[in-house]
Amino acid sequence: MEKNKKKKGSILFIISGPSGVGKSTLCDYLLSELPALKFSVSTTTRPIRGEEVDGVNYIFKDKEEFKNLVDQNEFLEWAIVHNNYYGTQKQMVNDFIDEGFDVVLEVDVQGGLAIQENDPRAVLIFVAPPKFSDLEQRLVGRGTDTDSVIKTRLNNAHGEMQSIKLYDYLIVNDSLEESKDLIRSIFTAERNKASRTLSDYIIR
Ligand code: ADP
Ligand code: 5GP
Is residue 88 assigned to a domain? Predict the structure, then answer.
């Protein structure tokens, strides 16, 4: 993984967790509430799902196009998740950082840990379900995936949960309203850490 240029002040917030737990729901909430926050639109080879829009939810590519981007060293990180390729393009994250925005990245645990290795001040937030059976209910309820896709995602959930201990924060997404409050509090607290704000503070 390449060193990513980092402007002082911008924070990378990583949100990970098993499929169906509510990551996108929480990201959408944060983006609607926090104008200084931008979403890193990942690139993927998986088929478009439900109401998704190319360039908004993901940049959709075929496998060959994705591999070309890998060869051209365009990715900050990339991984194979649920049998598809997913990656974070450096350019998008760097542009947001250069413009002074904080960035939220919804990536799997491999991606989250790779990004934190590159930028130790990145904040890792894991979203977990109250019970495994909630994942199936939510994936079925979302109505966007076939039975076989849901099965693959549920099978991978146990493995992803093993990485919770490497994350900075854990949100058990039971009541959505409580989870929204909690994730917002995490963002507020991280933005106000003395180590991040001291350089801008002038005593008069
Ligand atoms: P992910 O992005 O983690 O795959 P989504 O955000 O798409 O998950 O959520 C999956 C489904 O679960 C959606 O239909 C969403 O409305 C629903 N959902 C999200 N959070 C909760 C919650 N706390 N309780 C019940 N349903 C939820
Ligand atoms: P979904 O297909 O449900 O949108 O995402 C499946 C998984 O891929 C989720 O865990 C999601 O966080 C992860 N993912 C999405 N984009 C990226 C990315 O750019 N890099 C990595 N490593 N994982 C990603």
Answer: no
Using only the alpha carbons of the chain, give its radius of gyration.
17
Q: Return d(Cα 124, Cα 141) in angstroms, integer.
A: 27
115 within a domain of the structure (yes/no): yes
Is residue 196 in a domain? yes
First to last CA, the chain: 43
DSSP 8-state assignment for residue 165:
G
Ligand 2 atom closest to the Cα of residue 112 is: 22
pLDDT digits 0-9 by tens, 48-69: 999 999 999 999 999 999 999 9
Tokens found for residue 29: 């909430």
Q: Are 176 and 102 in contact (CB under 8 A)?
A: no
Instruction: Please give the tally of structural domains in the chain.
Output: 1
For residue 20, the domain's CATH number is 3.40.50.300
pTM: predicted TM-score of the whole model, two decimal places:
0.95
For 145: left if phi > 0, alpha if psi spans -120 to 50, otherwise beta; the answer is beta
Residue nearest to ligand 2 atom 10, measured at CA? 108
Measured by CA distance, the residue closest to atom 1 of ligand 2 is 19
